[in-house]
Model the fold of this input.
Amino acid sequence: MAELDRKYEVEILEREGRQKLPDPVKEELKASGMMDEKGKLKLKGVSPKMLKRMKQEYVECPVLKEDIHFIQCFVCPNFQSRVMGKVLCKGEKL
Done:
């Protein structure tokens, strides 16, 4: 299998408790059909157990230069893959 072209390999970090998604991110998720009107996430191929874990994780985004919720990273166009506690990121401008 060929290597994915990536600019960054970002470490996934974890916080205690759940984090609140910013409102613009929620609107984007609703518009793309990944969140229902009640605010429940509907990510295809992600188990409820994994989703619960993802809600406690964040990454130090090299593109936005800030800490962002992992779910925000997961739906980003730059997201390529999650491998062994790291995110493979294309690193393109948003």
